[in-house]
Amino acid sequence: MSPLTFGQFLGVQLNEGFPLIWHIVLVEDRFGRAFGNALPRVNDNQFVLGKLIGSGGFGKVYRANMQSDASTVAVKFLRKAFWQNEDARLSFVREIGIASQIQHPGVIRYLGYGKSPHGGPYVICEWIDGCSLRDVVIPAGVL
Ligand SMILES: Nc1ncnc2c1ncn2[C@@H]1O[C@H](COP(=O)(O)OP(=O)(O)OP(=O)(O)O)[C@@H](O)[C@H]1O
């Protein structure tokens, strides 16, 4: 049997139930390379969480520092409200699976993933010291 891809593996981590694992295998078949590249697993004791930076539809984003080299990263946790929601978990997995394969200076690099002691999945990505698009667009008056 071939090794689990990232999407499959995270599906196992997130769900621990057969139907979702099977669903993700099917999703991978359909989208081909969508989950092709594995990200490393990063345990929560490998970084120190800092302050909450922001939140989006699916998750909350914290600033954090890696224990290994003190580099600053962003850690995005799936909202607790979605832990039991299969569609939300799949969207989270899909977003990470696809985005982690894009290598472009304009796209955030995903560095790893894990599962918090409380059971929620998270993804670690490079820290971007920027501002929101709103801060750029509103002063300029145009998009
Ligand atoms: N890599 C990062 N570096 C620095 N800040 C970040 C990073 N990722 C997210 N943030 C901050 O956290 C906020 C929320 O990010 P998030 O990715 O959850 O937003 P979103 O794309 O609107 O969410 P979703 O995809 O869940 O709808 C962002 O608006 C930004 O301020």
From TrEMBL:
<keyword id="KW-0808">Transferase</keyword>
<dbReference type="Pfam" id="PF00069">
    <property type="entry name" value="Pkinase"/>
</dbReference>
<protein>
    <submittedName>
        <fullName>Serine/threonine protein kinase</fullName>
    </submittedName>
</protein>
<keyword id="KW-0067">ATP-binding</keyword>
<feature type="domain" description="Protein kinase">
    <location>
        <begin position="47"/>
        <end position="143"/>
    </location>
</feature>
<dbReference type="InterPro" id="IPR011009">
    <property type="entry name" value="Kinase-like_dom_sf"/>
</dbReference>
<keyword id="KW-0547">Nucleotide-binding</keyword>
<dbReference type="GO" id="GO:0004674">
    <property type="term" value="F:protein serine/threonine kinase activity"/>
</dbReference>
<dbReference type="GO" id="GO:0005524">
    <property type="term" value="F:ATP binding"/>
</dbReference>
<dbReference type="InterPro" id="IPR000719">
    <property type="entry name" value="Prot_kinase_dom"/>
</dbReference>
<keyword id="KW-0418">Kinase</keyword>
<dbReference type="InterPro" id="IPR017441">
    <property type="entry name" value="Protein_kinase_ATP_BS"/>
</dbReference>
<keyword id="KW-0723">Serine/threonine-protein kinase</keyword>
<feature type="binding site">
    <location>
        <position position="76"/>
    </location>
    <ligand>
        <name>ATP</name>
    </ligand>
</feature>
